[in-house]
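Hey team,

Filing this mostly as a record. A colleague (T.K.) asked me to run one chain through the structure pipeline before their review meeting, and I want the input and output archived in the tracker in case anyone asks later how it was produced. No errors, nothing strange. Just documentation.

Input sequence:
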Amino acid sequence: MAPPSDLGATLEDRVALERTRQFFGLAQGNMLSMMVGAATVAIVLHSGGTERMRIGIWGLLFLIACGGVLWFEHRVQCVGLHPHNHRRLLRTRIQIGTGVALFYGLAGWLLPDRPTLEQDTLLFLILSTVVTVGSLSFSAMPPHYLWISAATMGPLLAHLVHRYASFGEYSYLLLLGMCIAWLGFVLHKSLAVSRTTIEAIRLNQILHDEVAEHQRTRDALRFMALHDALTGLGNRRYFDQVLKRAIANARRGQCRFGLVALDLNEFKPVNDRLGHAAGDQLLQSVAQRLKESVREGDFCARLGGDEFALLLFGTIDQNAMLRAAAHLQHRLEGVHYLDCAQTAVQATASIGWAVYPDDGDAFASLMGVADARMYREKQGRKAGSSDRPDAAQVTHGSERSTARTGEASAATSLSGKAISS
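Output structure:
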């Protein structure tokens, strides 16, 4: 299960979470070595004369404790480690692990009440190995191996003190001194390793933050380079890239797409009469309506000033482009509310279009046909005409019969229809 995003967490929180993840990652499969150690302890106890029944009960309780650890680790793997739960799960795991380690420490008390120096020495070697391996393996989590050391070596030290007090053999006093010296040496070295490990985790998180910040900066710069700052649409540079790529893909896949060129009518009087803030808000309103008018996968761009362009993909033909132009015109003709000027304006646009490959198979030819159609409509509006030329009137720069003009005008008068898919 993938961990959720840690965005918003402080550096210390993320370092703590990473330490917990490393701890649980290293703890998986650790029970096998613990069971091997328990089997070795059982052999030592048996050689020292401990009753089989006592060894069996001790071993059964140890296996039950190990089963609890395995169940808990499986549960952690299912729920995952998150910023809001990792400390609680870590505390529980340390407590269970300490309980398992306590079985090791109590093993010495199962030996008969007589001098068993050889077995006690072997137990010291086994338990010191457990402490050493645990300290070095879980260096990222000092609380864990400190509790393991206390649960393992504490009862053993108490057992050696009891043996010395009961039998007065100086060998136990020597063994007790060796245990304390070895434990102090191991913990001193382990804490030094832990400081280095934790600092490495911290530096890794800082490096990760710097890389992420660098990536965000790159993404922001790329967005700024390819998008219009006012409307958020693609800019002319981005449009040129997308159009060239669309031509290459269409040529390779033998498919079609449409290009729409759009220019607002009478935009300058809005700027002059209401101010540039109102003009900017009108451009933003137009851009939003254009984005809402096209399908996902289509592309909108502001080429500059009051000029816009769209790329429409899918099943595109001349009739589809006529319906698309009518739909865009209908969407833009609605009232635009300008909060900064406390007024509303109604915008219109001159729209031209071209279809690949019918109107051209290159960047310049497609743009030329779309611009020519847009220019003819703008001139027609200035002359008081509402006709919009169709493909028959401007195709690769040549004019055809005026009989098709009426058909194009009728087609573009179909307002509010959705863009054909």
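Quick notes for T.K.: The mean pLDDT is 85. Strands lie at 257-264, 299-304, 307-313, 335-338, 343-346, 349-356.
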